[in-house]
């Protein structure tokens, strides 16, 4: 008889009671289960081991070589608590390739280690060992045990992200120098300073790449990382503001035809021209139009100002126009339209419609912007 399992997950209720005796009449009896039982423990681990062995039979080479505890660590890492109150333990075999080379057969190749490095298996956590083999494979360097301990203190998950997440093509953070730098700068000088974590350093590098043509080596590890981080963040904001202002100015220039004035109500409307105008409008009228700058610059919407002809510089009402419709038109503290503003808005919309029909008939102007707005 064959012992088979084709599922990805098992839970404790399905596998309680598995033992060597259970499989004596199957080929599972040759799975080194007896060795694993002596060194691996619990029902869940036994069932999970058999599931791994079914898909990756070379796992028994690890067990027979004295690495049952390591296999147990892998099983624990691939086991999740699910169900109500997270009381149901479920093992997922799809997690196994994260920790071992499932295509290899020899223990050293499966572990990604050389024989003289085997002592690391029982000395460090699975996360640390996985980080070590990952750096060894991808960077072709071996970390010392002192560096491994340092990496564990700094945080393995954040370090993996720091070294693996692409910032700019061709940029490869130096592993050892980065570890030493983080150790030196991690502790803040007072309670108000930011803690320099791998995520903090990644954020700095990412922002630096946005304001530099490259990532200059001399700027990667500044003497005062917190000051450098704040400075580059300000430069990113300034650059973003420049792009937003350029987008708003270009869009506004194409929308001059939306301007309109009405003698009866004494009101006129014009397109917003700068981000500064938008922010001032929002502050004066106590509404949120200042947050629309990016959307306006990317031509996702259009913001216009309604003013009194007698006080053209004082904000009165702010109108959002998109897809041929007025999305909103608000005064101070998000006040709804007054009767005179409603009358003016209706006249303005009629003017726009007449203008579009005139252009369509005479063919003097046709722009994608006009058609969409």
Question: Could you write a compact summary of the structure shown?
Answer:
With 373 residues, the chain is an alpha+beta fold. Helix content is 50%, strand content 10%. The protein has a five-stranded antiparallel beta sheet, with helices on both faces.
Question: Descriptors for this entry?
Answer:
single chain, about 375 residues, five-stranded antiparallel beta sheet, three-stranded antiparallel beta sheet, elongated
The stretches of 5 or more residues where confidence is low (pLDDT under 50) are: 12-17, 366-372
- Percent of residues in beta strands? 5-15%
Q: Largest sheet, described in full?
A: 5 strands, antiparallel
Order of helices and strands: EHHHHHEEHHHHHHHHHEEHHEEEHH
Distance between the termini: 72 Å
Query: Count of helical segments?
Result: 18
* Strand line-up of the largest beta sheet: 4-5-6-7-8
Alpha-beta content class? alpha+beta
Q: Taking Cα atoms only, what radius of gyration do you get, to the nearest Å?
A: 33 Å
User: What characteristic shape results from the CA principal axes?
Assistant: elongated
Helix content class: 40-55%
| Integer average pLDDT | 86
Would you count the extended β strands for me?
8
Give an overview in words.
With 373 residues, the protein is of the alpha+beta class. Helix content is 50%, strand content 10%. The chain contains 18 helices and 8 strands. The protein has a 5-stranded antiparallel sheet, with helices on both faces. Strands 1-3-2 form a 3-stranded antiparallel sheet.
């Amino acid at each position: 008889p064959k012992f088979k399992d084709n599922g990805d997950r098992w839970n404790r209720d399905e596998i309680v009671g598995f033992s060597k005796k259970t499989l004596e009449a199957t080929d599972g009896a040759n799975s080194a289960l007896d060795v694993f039982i002596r060194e691996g423990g619990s029902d869940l681990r036994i069932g999970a081991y058999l599931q791994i062995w079914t898909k990756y039979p070379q796992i028994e080479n690890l067990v027979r070589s004295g690495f049952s505890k390591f296999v147990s660590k892998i099983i624990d890492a691939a086991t999740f608590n699910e169900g109500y109150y997270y009381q149901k333990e479920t093992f997922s075999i799809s997690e196994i390739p994260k920790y071992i080379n499932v295509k290899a057969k020899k223990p050293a190749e499966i572990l990604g280690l050389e024989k003289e490095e085997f002592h690391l298996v029982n000395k460090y956590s699975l996360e640390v060992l996985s980080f070590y083999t990952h750096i060894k494979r991808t960077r072709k360097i071996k970390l010392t045990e002192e560096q491994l301990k340092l990496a564990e203190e700094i945080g393995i998950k954040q370090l993996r992200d720091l070294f693996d997440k692409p910032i700019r093509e061709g940029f490869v953070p130096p592993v050892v120098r980065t570890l030493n730098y983080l150790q030196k700068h991690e502790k803040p000088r007072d309670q108000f300073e930011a803690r320099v974590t791998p995520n903090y350093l990644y954020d700095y590098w990412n922002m630096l790449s946005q304001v530099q043509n490259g990532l200059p080596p001399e700027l990667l590890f500044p003497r005062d990382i917190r000051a450098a981080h704040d400075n580059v963040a300000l430069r990113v904001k300034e650059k973003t503001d420049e792009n937003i202002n350029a987008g708003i100015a270009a869009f506004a220039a194409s929308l001059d035809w939306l301007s309109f004035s009405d003698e009866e109500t004494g009101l006129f409307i014009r397109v917003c021209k700068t981000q500064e105008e938008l922010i001032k409008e929002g502050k004066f009228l106590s509404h949120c139009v200042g947050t629309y700058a990016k959307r306006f610059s990317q031509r996702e919407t259009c913001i216009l100002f309604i003013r009194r002809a007698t006080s053209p510089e004082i904000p009165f009402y702010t109108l959002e126009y998109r897809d041929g419709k007025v999305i909103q038109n608000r005064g101070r503290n998000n006040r709804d339209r007054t009767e005179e503003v409603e009358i003016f808005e209706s006249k303005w919309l009629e003017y726009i419609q007449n203008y579009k029909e005139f252009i369509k008939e005479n063919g003097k102007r046709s722009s994608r912007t006009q058609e969409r707005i």
